[in-house]
Amino acid sequence: MTSEGTHLDPENWDDFSHDMHQLMDQCLARMKQARDLPWQPMPSDLADRLSLHDSTTGAGSAQSLDQLAKDIMPYATGNTHPKFFGWVHGAGLPVSVGAELVAATMNSNCGGRDHGAIEVERATLDWLLGVSGMPKTASAILTTGTSQATILALTAARNRQFGHDVRKTGIQSLPKIAVYVRRGTHSCIGKALEVMGYGTDAIHVVDTDENMRMDIASLAVAVAEDQAAGRVPLAVIGTAGSVNTGSFDKLNAVADFCAEQDIWFHVDAAFGFWAKLAEHPWKQLTDGMERANSISCDFHKWMSVPYDCGACMIYDRTLHFDTFTSRPNYLEQQEEGLGGGDLWFCDYGLELSRGFRALKVWTAIKAIGTKAFSASITDNCKQTSLMADLVQASDVLELSFPVSSNVCCFYVTHGDVNEIAAELQISGEAVFSTTFIKGRPCLRAALVNHRTTSDNIRQSIIAVEKAVKRRK
Ligand SMILES: *Cc1c(COP(=O)(O)O)cnc(C)c1O
């Protein structure tokens, strides 16, 4: 031990500052060139280059920061590129580089206590709840994503149903439950039920109507069946933007049914929530969402905030608090000082220690504003319609269903869709993912990227057509 103690800070701050500035320039250059940098396969020796086996003595910040730029940054997922349409991946924002820098500098723990980062999350969630249209009694918390938000929401539903004693007694002596989803609901619902101890057997899949929305008559039959069998209907899951088709359930109709039957209404709005910011007619797809007992959504998809950040909204702040608060004496609230503050997020979710996710969200909204988000989200919907038109005009492609929001799927006349998708990914021409619609394999595009242009759509469809024709 030296007289200064064994700290881990740089030995030479001038050198460190120089290296950091250089890295920042490389980061910004990459973001500026995002349109020319598609996903690329990793070099075969990358795993070796990244190995930490020989790390007894540190390599030093200069060499490590240099390696970040050279060995790691180029091999990203590729979702910053405007012709990345696979899965549902947000595109990122240059301004977030600044937010992440400040968040790392502050190193705030957002589980609780009285400090500025909490106020940033409070302001962010106030804004979010305002967009949601939920009642003033609602509360929210930022999560890693929709998967985690779903666990929070269904846990609150369980506690409303059975009382907060379930926190102590567990579910073992409680009646069996059922959760209603429509065909095509995301797998995060099943995962939430697994970790809650109910298992996926608790899921009751309800048929969809001709527009791939939950069929309310089938829902009513399913609920009646379960009730007759002694199962408690715990929650109905409405989907706002389904992964495969981008379809939105008739949320008002589901809300009416749930209100009538007194069943918890949860909306999985991972990406579809943000249609709220779009123009007519897409905004209207979200009508009725505000009547939900809980909503989950992601900032890292259509809001372009870098990974990861989602949110859980619950209609009743007291229920939300009572479901998760747990304060041993070392976490007791103080009147004054750092131990004060009226909003401790550890009372509203699973985590005690929490990062400063709110800052990148707050910065995105502050810097860009809802008007610009609205324009880019609306553009994506229009571009999806354009893609559908091009598919319909093509003699080697066939639309899988009429487009309703930002997801377009299509079949090909020749060749294997997985091979075609891989070929276009490797060539850097476009990233489509694949799925099955009506039992047939197809290419799938979900448009959530503010960098995408109509020309990008035209180029990508031409690239697919060429790949199909090569297989004729
Ligand atoms: C992405 C997605 C999820 C899961 O969200 P994560 O943020 O990846 O946990 C759930 N539902 C839908 C509809 C999605 O698109």
Biggest sheet features: 7 strands, mixed
Q: List the uncertain runs.
A: none
Give me the strand/helix succession.
HHHHHEHHEHEHEHEEEHHEEHEEH
Number of helices: 14
Gross morphology is: globular
The CATH architecture of the largest domain is 3-Layer(aba) Sandwich
Strand tally is 11
Q: Which oligomeric form is depicted?
A: single chain
Percent range of helical residues: 40-55%
Our measurement of the CA-to-CA distance between the termini, rounded to an integer number of angstroms, reads 73 Å
Secondary-structure class: alpha/beta
Cα-based radius of gyration, to the nearest Å: 24 Å
Percentage of β-strand residues: 5-15%
Spatial strand sequence of the major β-sheet = 1-7-6-5-4-2-3
Average pLDDT, rounded to a whole number, is 96
The CATH homology group name of the largest domain? Type I PLP-dependent aspartate aminotransferase-like (Major domain)
Describe this structure in words.
With 472 residues, the chain is α/β, with parallel strands linked by helices. The chain has two domains: 19-42 and 63-93 and 369-472, Aspartate Aminotransferase, domain 1 (Alpha-Beta Complex); 108-368, 3-Layer(aba) Sandwich (Aspartate Aminotransferase, domain 2). The protein is 40% helix and 12% strand. The protein contains 14 helices and eleven strands. It has a seven-stranded mixed sheet, with helices on both faces. The chain has a four-stranded antiparallel sheet with strand order 8-9-11-10. Bound molecules: pyridoxal-5'-phosphate. Pyridoxal-5'-phosphate binds next to α6.
